[in-house]
Amino acid sequence: MRDVVPLAPQPEEYYAAIDLGSNSFHMVVIKVVAGSVHIVGKVKQKIRLAAGLDENMNLDEASMQRGWECLEAFSEWLADIPKQNQRVVATATLRLARNAEEFIARGRYILGCDINVISGEEEARQIYLGVAYTSQTLGHTLVIDIGGASTEIVVGEGFDPKQLTSLNMGCVTYLERYFSDGLLSQSNFDAAIAAAKENIQPVAEMFLPYDWQQCMGASGTPQAIVEILVSQGINDSIRLSYLHELMQQCISIGRHKDLNIEGLDESRKQPFPSGLAILIALFECLNIDEMQISGGALREGLIYGMLETREQHNVRVQTINSITQRFDIDACQAERVEELAKALFKQVPKSFWLVGFDACGVLDAAARLHEIGTHIEYKNSHLHGAYILNYLDMPGFTRLQRDVIRDLVHNYRQSIDVKLLNGYQPRIRNSLTLLTRLLRVAVILCIRRSGQRVPVPKLSLEGDGTLQLQFEAGWLARHPLIRIELANEAWLQHRAGWIMQVS
C-alpha cells in the first residue's frame, strides 16, 4: 500500500509583515484560506532600540546587536514565504538615527529582503488602515498609537484617513528623559505630561474640529491599561479618571523597580509610566472621553495592504463566517435567531441604548455564535461557548465588544449568571442586561429549528425594566412548547431580578 502524503500548503497563501519599532520588533505571519485571513504566527521581541540613541543621535553597538539577533530569528520564518508576500518597515528610531544605514544594511543581508524606513505620516496612515481593517469603525474615528519614539494621531472615516500626524515622543524616549532616576514621583510625571502637551497642543486644532464617534488605542500602553482594568474587575473603556488613578498608584509605589500593579504584565512594566504620562496628555489636550482597544495597527495595515481586499469584504462578516465554519455552527439556525433578535431589538426605543456602544452589532454576533459550544457537547454548551470565545481571535471587534459577546453566549440559556453582568460599569451593564433578555427570547422562539414562520411579538419596556411580549391572538395556545418555555424563562428572569410578562 502506498503512503498517502498530504498536500502541502501553497507558499503564496502565506504573508508576513515586520515592524522594526523603537521599543519592540514585531512580526505577524498570516495564511489566506478561501479569502479569510488566519494568523498563524506572531513574534514580538523587546529591543528598546530608541534607548540606544546617544546625544549625537547615533545608535550604540549593543542596541544594534540586539536588533540583528532578533532579525536572525525572523529570517527563518521569511525563508518559506515568497518575497512578494513580505513587507518589512522601520519607524521612528531608524528615521532619527544618523547611523541608521549601518543597521539597515546588515538587516537587509540577514533577512534577505528590503527594509523600508517609512515617514511618520506613512506610519500614521498604515496604523489607521490596520485599525480600520480589524476593528469596526463608526463614523469619524480617532486613532492613537504611542510607540517607543513617536506617537501617531489620526482621524478618519471608513478606510479614509482624513487628518494625521506623527510626533517625536514615545514611551522609550520619555522613559530615558523623565524617569531616568528610577523614581515614580509626581514631579517626574508632571514633567513628562507637560512635555507631551507641548508637543500635542500645536497640532490639536487639526483634530478637535472632527466630531469623532469613537477613539481607538493601537499601542501597548492602552493595551496594558485594559489588562489592568480587567484584572481588577473593571469592564469599561479607558477613561481619564482611570489614568489618573493609575498614575497615583505608580506614585505611591515610588520606585520603578518596585512597580507592581495588579494586571500589569512584567514585559510592559518598563515603559508603562512614560506611556501613561503621554496618554494622559493626549486625553487632556484632545478632550477624549473614552478609548477602546483596536484589533490591529501597523502590521495589520501592511498585511491587508498587500492583500488589497479592504473594499471587497467586511471584517466582522468575514470573522463570523470563518468561526461558523471552523466550529461547524448550524448557520441556518443561527440566522433565524439573529433575525428574530434583531426584530426585537428594533422595537426597543433608542434611548435605552448607550450611544457608541454598537449594541446591535454585538447582539448580531452573539446570535450567530450562540451555539459555538455545541461543538463540544450540548448540556453545558453555553459554558463551553463562553470559554471558546474568551480565547478566540475576533478581528473587527474591540476587546469590550468581545467580552460582551462572550457573556451573552454564557447567558443565552439555563440559569442567568447575574455576577457576569455586575462586572461591567452601570452604563454598559444596562445595555448588556437588555441584550441578554432579547437573545434568550429569540433562542426560545426558534426552538423548533425549522423554517416555519415565527411571529415577532410586540415588545414594550416599562420604566422599571419590565419586558412585555404580546403575541398574535391564539398563537401561544397553538404552540404549547414555546408557551411552556416562555413561562419558564419568565421565572428564570424573575430569579435574576427582572420582570417579563407574556400574553
From TrEMBL:
InterPro entries: ATPase_NBD, GppA/Ppx_hydrolase, Guo-5TP_3DP_PyrP, Ppx_GppA_C, Ppx_GppA_N, PyroPPase_GppA_Ppx
Enzyme Commission no: 3.6.1.40
Family that this chain belongs to: Belongs to the GppA/Ppx family. GppA subfamily.
Domain Ppx/GppA phosphatase N-terminal: 28-308
Catalytic activity line of the entry: guanosine 3'-diphosphate 5'-triphosphate + H2O = guanosine 3',5'-bis(diphosphate) + phosphate + H(+)
Protein name, per record: Guanosine-5'-triphosphate,3'-diphosphate pyrophosphatase
Keywords: Hydrolase
Function as written in the Swiss-Prot or TrEMBL entry: Catalyzes the conversion of pppGpp to ppGpp. Guanosine pentaphosphate (pppGpp) is a cytoplasmic signaling molecule which together with ppGpp controls the 'stringent response', an adaptive process that allows bacteria to respond to amino acid starvation, resulting in the coordinated regulation of numerous cellular activities.
Domain of life: Bacteria
One Pfam family per UniProt: Ppx-GppA
Protein species of origin: Pseudobowmanella zhangzhouensis
Gene that this sequence comes from: gppA
Domain Ppx/GppA phosphatase C-terminal: 315-489
Annotated metabolic or biological route of this protein: Purine metabolism; ppGpp biosynthesis; ppGpp from GTP: step 2/2
Enzyme class per UniProt: hydrolase
